[in-house]
Amino acid sequence: MKKIGFIDYFLDEWHAEKYPEWIESASNGAMKVTYAYGKKDSENGLSNAQWCANKGIELLTTIEEVVEKSDYLIVLSPDHPEFHEELAMLALQSGKPTYVDKTFAPDRATALLLFETAQKHGTPMYSSSALRFASEYSAAPRQGIETICSIGPGRFDNYSIHQIEPIISLMGSDVSRVMYIGTPHSPALLIGFADGRQATINHFGGGCPFSLTINYESGDSSILRPESDFFASFIKQLVAFFETGEVKVDQAETIAIITIIEFGFKAAKTPYQWIELPS
């Protein structure tokens, strides 16, 4: 059995709660989360010690211990990417396959640093929103996409990744500029590609399901709703990554996604004006 170590900001959160059972099931018991580290206890939930006791996972006191004892590593902290550099750096120097949960980094500079560190030390590593692996999205024809309109729930800061990730996976990473076109209660961003193609993301609140409307140069269009079990597809891909060390997500796409999010915040300060992105 291969041992997986969690490295988290605090352990009592949804991803840490669900991943152990899903990974063990998807790997037919060949992989198991056995170690965990939390930088702090949850302020509104279980302590790290209580969470680990409930899960039968050994709580370790340092990241170094988790990295040393584990075969594979998962850096969590899904809603606090500002801690990913601190939490991930030792894992990325280990040479052991490492997954860094969404949102990968708080800004482009940190994203570049994390990838450079992993490459320098020969550490297989990737990050992704689970929405990338929705079968409805992955099966969509990519050739000839001219525009995409995406809608979904949640706030821009921690949920825009779930709209931007599928767009970049479908349209590529050659993004040149962004424009904020939303309101305080309904954030929205126009994404411009270097060749003139465009996409929009729109946050319409908690009751709004994710969907993409795609328009092709041919005039054809399609509406895609991720109704498949995209988390199961994501976990299947994660298990395959740990088994092979083969990364399926292009780092150029992840860097583009983080750049869009960072500059989306900047664009929100000057709505309806294009903000150019670094190349």
From TrEMBL:
Gfo/Idh/MocA-like oxidoreductase N-terminal domain residues are: 50-123
What are the boundaries of the signal sequence? none
Q: Which Pfam families match?
A: GFO_IDH_MocA
Matches recorded under Gene3D superfamilies: NAD(P)-binding Rossmann-like Domain
- Residues annotated as coiled-coil are none
Which InterPro entries does the record match to this protein?
Gfo/Idh/MocA-like_OxRdtase_N, NAD(P)-bd_dom_sf
| Origin: domain of life | Bacteria
Recorded protein name is: Gfo/Idh/MocA-like oxidoreductase N-terminal domain-containing protein
Q: Which organism is it from?
A: Paenibacillus spongiae
The organism's taxonomy opens as: Bacteria, Bacillati, Bacillota, Bacilli, Bacillales
